[in-house]
Design brief:
The protein is α/β, with parallel strands linked by helices. It contains ten helices and 14 strands. It has a domain of 236 residues: Rossmann fold (3-Layer(aba) Sandwich), CATH 3.40.50.720. The strands form four sheets. The chain has a seven-stranded parallel beta sheet, sandwiched between helices. Helix 3 runs parallel beside helix 4, helix 5 runs parallel beside helix 7 and helix 7 crosses helix 9. The two termini are 35 Å apart.
Amino acid sequence: MRIIIVGNLGYIGPSVSARFRSSFPDAEIIGFDIGYFAHSLSNAAFLPEIRLNRQIFGDIRTFPEALLEGVDAVVDLAAISNDPMGNRFEEVTMDVNYRAAVRLAEMCKRNGVSKFVYASSCSMYGEASEYPKKEEDELNPLTAYARSKVAAEKDLEPLAGDGFTVTCLRFATACGFTDRLRLDLVLNDFVAGALVNKEIGILSDGTPWRPMINTKDMARAFEWGVLRDPDNGGEFLAVNTGCNEWNNQIKPLADAVAAQIPGASVSTNPDAPPDRRSYRVNFDRFKQLAPDHQPAWNLEDTIADLKSNLEAMAFNDPDFRQSQFIRLKVLARHMAEGRLNEKLEWI
């Protein structure tokens, strides 16, 4: 088996690479990434990419079609991956997350790749907290990131068929420790803030809902996508990916962090404008289709793992929101120092 992981040098990639090497020990696994965040390592004992057979540096927007020869599966993690980056680089977000993803899938189908697994997002449900949303419910994307995922799914669906299986994993919000940690994600931010500042400041009133998933469980889902037979879910499948137990409101998330970090306090902002990004999600279909690849991490263990790894790397930066662990800050530094242009292309 030959597998390409596109966008493997980000936050989720190390978890996926480790899982794939364990699950597919004889496979040829190839990484393809533009390398914005390759240097943003966190407590890594070794370079995560030694698990791969090859690492190729390149831009998904100009993906070399010849690389797909003899490939069985492509996993697309490449994305401008959060709302602040999407707001700053809206057109690039659409290019990378949507247009380039669809072009890549078209190339895959032309070249006989049988499986295409796309990292989609539950954020496409937007303001939808009245009941847990199922896959067939109305979509309400509120951000450039969410809109790019909706557009990609729409154009990927007609490509499926004739031996080409497309799986769009609508992930809950990622969390947990990896070898390329991000601290611009809600749970990770809470743990870092509690450790170094003894304070968890919630910008809203704490009531918005947000489903969560550990990156190691995301890797389990990607494995399932590579293995999935079209008889199990169809030639095209868009499925909420996570578990019902991880539907959380923001305030209880913060309280769970404070419970594990002595001295940490939690504050909310009851006068803040309502956070419209509030949604609960129904994950029953994923549980039915992928019973052997269900999330194994819970909230308490994820917090404990983040805490222990941050302590092991002597993390003590009260200004961590300006650090290499904040993706928008990394891109801004690349641009300020003349390495990237406004289209986020290397100069």
